[in-house]
DNA sequence: CAATCAAACTTGACACTGTCAAGATAAGTC
DNA sequence: GACTTATCTTGACAGTGTCAAGTTTGATTG
């Protein structure tokens, strides 16, 4: 290739696009690392290597490992939202159908991205002041809040229903993911989500009637 | 100090008791580290330093960092059991009173040892073949199973009730701990556990009646 | 068009980590 | 009292996060 003097980009690596390309590439690498190497496999240097940049490049965009972790968690919440809205789109228009739909979406996300689900709720220090994270996580809660609204009795706090619903579906999803690799005897009798939702729906109905 | 030749113990540190002293001291140090420095503050070398031994001493007793983590998790499950049985001892003898008691015990443990609670359920790789861990964790589940037994309908799988109850209380406890440091506006309207238990008890009652 | 400037990295260093191999030392046993 | 073995220590190595300083490069400006 004799005319490499003409093309300035291939000679020196064309990294410097002044958009967020590297940012998203690093988050992609982080998600992949979590999936392939487990919760402890995430590392700034390995993300940098997978993205083809030097070991200190991630620190420029994310400051800390906590910063990268927060960006990964924000990505997770974004996928969370799409999973729930996807189920909502196919649901009937009744309040209980919509409530059950977002619960199934919650579990869909956990099943499709167990490493991200556990990562988000691992209790590690995330930068909750971060705009991206705050927006996506509050979006997710907003979807839950909307689906719960029809079951809030007049004069009652909406959180009473929201935290009840959230507790049931989150507890079920979390325990399911935590015990995913456990002995099959335990997993064989593991009840389906719909079985819990029957109880939940009944509890919310009776609560309205009384 | 001229007569240091007489006292052999102070010259060379008297470490070698051939019982599990160092083991428990290292687990103590690990629990303390988790509390003071957060989920990422656990380290074999720091545990060794706090216990006053060399940096490689923990590897002899626990093989891996995963081994130490498993021992810490086993300690957590043990405290889990004592928290639930303590509430059971003070509970009335009705099935619902006993069920609510273990749920409160579950939350007691999470509130008293948030770092251990989150550590146990952080989804990291623990050695579930380990005898100590297996025994204590199955003990904890046994307590739950016993309290749920009166609500299992004849012919039904006990897991249906157990996972329902476990999901509700675990989801509530986990979400509470995860959002402990969040904005106070959220925490102000956070419902009490008893409010969820009312719904749970009612759901189990109606399930029996139908 | 050339000089400048700041954004987007790279390079190098440091302290810290887990893990392994090899050695030391004391406890218990015969 | 010699031997064996459990319990550590010492030393080394690769890998990690983080910081400081330099370097390249796209854009801006005179």
Summarize the structure.
Chain A is mostly helical and 210 residues long. Chain A has 11 helices and no strands. Chain A has helices at residues 8-11, 21-37, 44-51, 57-62, 65-89, 95-112, 114-120, 131-148, 158-178, 184-188, 193-209.
Terminal CA distance of chain A reads 81 Å
CATH architecture of the largest domain in chain A: Orthogonal Bundle
| Oligomeric state of the chains present here | homodimer
Please mark out the parts of chain A with pLDDT under 50 across 5 or more consecutive residues, or reply none.
1-14
CATH class of the largest domain in chain A: Mainly Alpha
Order of helices and strands of chain A: HHHHHHHHHHH
Q: What is the percentage of strand-forming residues of chain A?
A: under 5%
For the largest beta-sheet of chain A, the strand count, sense and barrel status come to: none
**What is the CATH superfamily of the largest domain in chain A?**
Tetracycline Repressor, domain 2
Helices of chain A, by number, come to: 11
Give the structural class of chain A: mainly alpha
